[in-house]
Design goal:
The structure is a homodimer of 348-residue chains. Chain A has 348 residues and is α/β, with parallel strands linked by helices. Chain A is built from 14 helices and twelve strands. The structure holds a DNA duplex (30 and 30 nucleotides). Chains A, B: InterPro entries: HTH_LacI, LacI/GalR-like_sensor, Lambda_DNA-bd_dom_sf, Peripla_BP_I.
DNA sequence: AAAGATATTGTAATCGATTCCATTCAGTGA
DNA sequence: TCACTGAATGGAATCGATTACAATATCTTT
């Protein structure tokens, strides 16, 4: 047990506690020979400073919180990885807060900030409103947001352009000859859903195609929600030839439904998702999707947040609009599907 | 900003700090009317107790650490989820420690215990030796281990019987008519690898089959390692008709190699993995594997660890040997593969 | 109504570090 | 040798809570 405290070290090295503290923190202020003496005592006693006492005095915990709506979803897992690595390299630890898909739990974690358990917090949650997030920041807490733009000078944010994502997807499907494209949205009140719907509508309008409300349904960003949503969609209007799912998980739900209904992808139905989670490359046919630099957003924003916390002033650059990239794979391209299948079967 | 401290509340409610502290912690000891007065003051000032001060005084942080070798691997993600949920329900937070597949980083996290950043730690790491883990416990720190048996009264551990897992898999393959079964191990010095190899050898011996060293190779528990390992195996001895991979990730590496070499699974080669990660159900053909109750192990052990920390005595039950279950799917059963494929194509 | 028991409240020490301010020490120039 | 300067060191307050102990108020009981 690391029982020894700073006074024990001081006693052993025959110096005051102040001196021990100095060699630990600002060793340039102490003479070489006492410094060696103290270091020796520290080593002999196997002393490590008590982090709790340190925190109390310095008013910092060197810990960050990250709130995600479900750790198991690999979209979040990759962001966490980015956050964790950057945080560690800057000597911070991270506490993960899993809202477990329950909207109300997201805000609960703000208490970690209030009682000083963490120095700052990163929110990766589609449900909390901008207003709620801004309110937290205005109480004086350091927060950052991944996944959307926030109109507030003290909140760093990183996000991709959801409207562009949706337009890219829809344009791609139009190019493939699809004219009746269904949109499988996430929760209706999630910001991502809203913006992607907007892009979907814009792209249709630009192409001179009508907007048909029956071609839209709301899932819940999960596979099972996508499954149910797709079935509802078919009941309302089964004339569509392509589905744009607001994320990959829901697209997988569509896959499942198609398997049960014996609908061939992509020959009978094209499917495109968003996020480029790992699974997309393993399913058959491989799922077309949109890549977002998840790891990078996590790392970038963590660096920014820590920087801002430590300098206590808002940096010039706080808004990071990162690039997304459409990845056309087998699920939305009949040509690709056929040649690729052959390739996989015959290449040695 | 939650600037107010306990003295401010005391002043406002016209009581002493001790009284305020009492209504916060042991409210039965204070009269109803002063209690109400204090509560009112707390609410009016929006006071929250400073966790750092609390920690220092109580010598507890209500935080647990969990060390895994890679958060992105879904095997760990599910364990984390179990740990996190149980921890939260007992008012603990968890700090995740990602060793990022670097063996030397695992032990570094022990410093979190030494400096009292966490009250206890859960290790889910195949690389650290039992000796190292026991040494940590004997310094007086609370730890628990998932994934293997530890011979030490103060360390709760949960694990599946690796020997049994391997025997189940090999017996299953023998039943399918395979006689030359390759074993794709993980890191040679990981405990899991060692135990599974043992089970593999035992099952062969029991069946009266020879043990052929050329049918064994070491991967690294990752997909890419499985890929390379499989190619090496083929160079050494390509007469095998089945592969038992020490985990699913490596089995996926085998899939990849087979695709490149145009080897049909399962007709030309049967493949079985271990862990039942989510991906196994999405690949074609679906991967046979062994289910381990990951979430349950995480939750169970967390509960045990916290209980032990708080009662400061070792509980009667600290060793949890949980059941594993062989899941035969398409990759190791030609019959199942054919009917299942037909099923997927035709069922409505 | 007094004495003793019990319930309520307050004072002050404590947790283990950091750091301001004061003091001591060594070195320099006159 | 003395006064002065800057460097090195020490003493003690401080961070914000909890809690042992002491003091006071309230309630029983006779």
């Amino acid at each position: 047990m690391s029982e020894s405290k700073i006074v024990d070290v001081a006693r052993r090295a025959k110096v005051s506690v102040a001196t021990v503290s100095r060699v630990l923190n600002r060793s340039e202020q102490v003479s070489e020979k006492t410094k060696q003496r103290v270091l020796k005592a520290i080593a002999e006693m196997n002393y490590t400073p008590n982090a709790m006492a340190k925190n109390l005095r310095s008013k910092r915990t060197m810990t960050l919180g990250i709130v995600v709506s479900d750790i198991e979803v690999s979209y979040y897992a990759e962001i966490i990885k980015g956050v964790e690595n950057m945080a560690n390299s800057l000597d911070y630890k991270i506490i993960i807060c899993d809202a477990q898909n329950k909207q109300e739990r997201e805000l609960e974690y703000v208490s970690l900030l209030q009682n000083r358990t963490v120095d700052g917090m990163i929110f990766v949650t589609p449900y909390m409103t901008s207003k709620e997030l801004i309110a937290v920041a205005e109480e004086g807490y350091s927060i950052a947001v991944i996944g959307r733009y926030i109109e507030h000078e003290s909140i760093p944010c990183a996000f991709t352009d959801n409207v562009k994502i949706a337009k890219d997807v829809v344009n791609h499907l139009l190019e493939q000859g699809h004219e009746r494209i269904a949109f499988l949205s996430g929760y209706a009140d999630a910001i991502d859903s809203y913006e992607r719907l907007e892009g979907y509508m814009k792209a249709l309008r630009d192409a001179g195609l009508p907007f048909i409300p029956d071609l839209i349904d709301n899932g819940d960003f999960n596979e099972s929600g996508g499954f149910r949503s797709f079935l509802r969609l078919r009941e309302k209007n089964d004339a569509f030839t392509a589905v744009f799912a607001a994320n990959d998980e829901m697209a997988l739900g569509v896959y499942k439904a198609c398997r049960e209904l014996s609908i061939q992808i992509p020959s009978e139905l094209a499917v495109v998702g968003v996020d480029n989670i790992r699974l997309t490359k393993y399913v058959t046919p491989k799922l077309s999707t949109v890549e977002q630099p998840k790891y990078t957003m996590g790392a970038l924003l963590t660096e920014k947040l820590i920087d801002q916390m430590n300098h206590n002033e808002f940096s010039d650059r706080r808004v990071f609009k990162v690039d997304s990239k459409l990845l056309v794979r087998e699920s939305s391209s009949y040509a690709i599907e056929r040649s690729s299948n052959q390739g996989e079967a015959n290449t040695s």
